[in-house]
């Protein structure tokens, strides 16, 4: 099974699938999706292609069980981040202890492992279905897993195959984006009597933000750690000799379980109260994603715990598509191998970690779907 997975991994990693929403004009997921379709059809698996956007399909591959068992989704994304500065991103290199190349770890190893496990599940007499969801756009807007959920695909549980260094991740923070707009009044720079400076009057928001961040660090969640808040972007003014009529501060918050988009808008509204009351302000929520928090007693968590006794259980610092699946009612956990260089110019999969990963995953699939 090991060599079969690594062969498929090298094939997938040799195909450029840079997310075109991250890098305009990039290749996208079409070619790698087509390769998966061909592989899965030759393996005798059921294949459904779900067009998320033109040329950007999810591929859903099913090893049908005999019936009456629990179905399990193995979800991994097929898009990769940009390759600026990466010498030979799509020529995977195999060394004794690692395979390197863009996307090998994040997450083509997950895609390859899931597909090969599905093939091995055929004819094993499992009662539940093993469903591989090879999804697009995780690195940007998660349109792939959104489309999956919108299509009504439902399984009893899911494992999202992101690189967790063999930690069984049952929780992570979510995030919310919001904006404070401060309105001033434009006037010639020589006319302080007519102008009202939106940038200067926005300043209390920034100092208030620093105080809020300091307060959040004192209130950690027992599993995922503390929420956090920071300024992401600031825009204001039109030219040097004009009083700025507008200043916008875009703010990101990392949310802990129990918080949602309204947590941020509530805090931003509080921050605007620090501003001179003569100033007009607006608070808007722009985007966000829920945190993940499922019980360690969930059968899918216990399947991994049983398959890999002694592996750590906990939270990841990063957000994953598991939160979308869990919000749709599919208990979801995140599990994957280790390595390094994700989103950098030398990405690699650690093969020692991979050997544990694929064995534990296979054992968990069998025990969950038997
Ligand atoms: Zn990823």
Describe the protein:
- With 370 residues, this protein is an alpha+beta fold.
- It folds into two domains: 2-172 and 291-369, Zn peptidases (Aminopeptidase), CATH 3.40.630.10; 174-289, Alpha-Beta Plaits.
- It has helices at 2-13, 30-42, 104-121, 143-150, 198-216, 261-272, 299-307, 322-327, 351-369, and strands at residues 46-53, 56-63, 72-77, 93-94, 98-100, 130-135, 157-160, 168-172, 174-183, 228-236, 246-255, 280-289, 292-293, 313-316, 332-334, 339-340, 348-350.
- A hairpin with a 2-residue loop joins strand 1 (46-53) and strand 2.
- Helix 1 (2-13) packs across helix 3 and helix 3 runs parallel beside helix 9.
- It is elongated, with a radius of gyration of 24 Å.
- The model has no long low-confidence stretch (mean pLDDT 96).
- The structure holds zinc ion.
- Zinc ion (ZN) binds next to helix 3.
- Zinc ion is lined by residues 77, 106-107, 138, 162.
Keyword list:
single chain, 370 residues, alpha+beta, Aminopeptidase, Alpha-Beta Plaits, six-stranded mixed β-sheet, binds zinc ion
Summed over residues and divided by their number, the pLDDT gives a mean of 96
What would you call the shape?
Answer: elongated
What is the CA–CA distance across the termini?
19 Å
Low-confidence stretches: none
CATH superfamily of the largest domain, called what? Answer: Zn peptidases
Q: What is the topology, as strand order, of the major beta sheet?
A: 1-2-6-3-7-15
Using only C-alpha atoms, the radius of gyration works out to 24 Å
- Count all strands and give the number: 17
Q: Ligands in the structure?
A: zinc ion
Largest sheet: 6 strands, mixed
Query: What is the count of helical runs?
Result: 9
Strand coverage percent = 25-35%
| Percentage of residues assigned to helices | 25-40%
How many domains in all?
Answer: 2
Provide the CATH topology of the largest domain: Aminopeptidase
What is the structural class?
Answer: alpha+beta
Oligomer: single chain
Q: What top-tier CATH class of the largest domain fits best?
A: Alpha Beta
CATH architecture of the largest domain: 3-Layer(aba) Sandwich
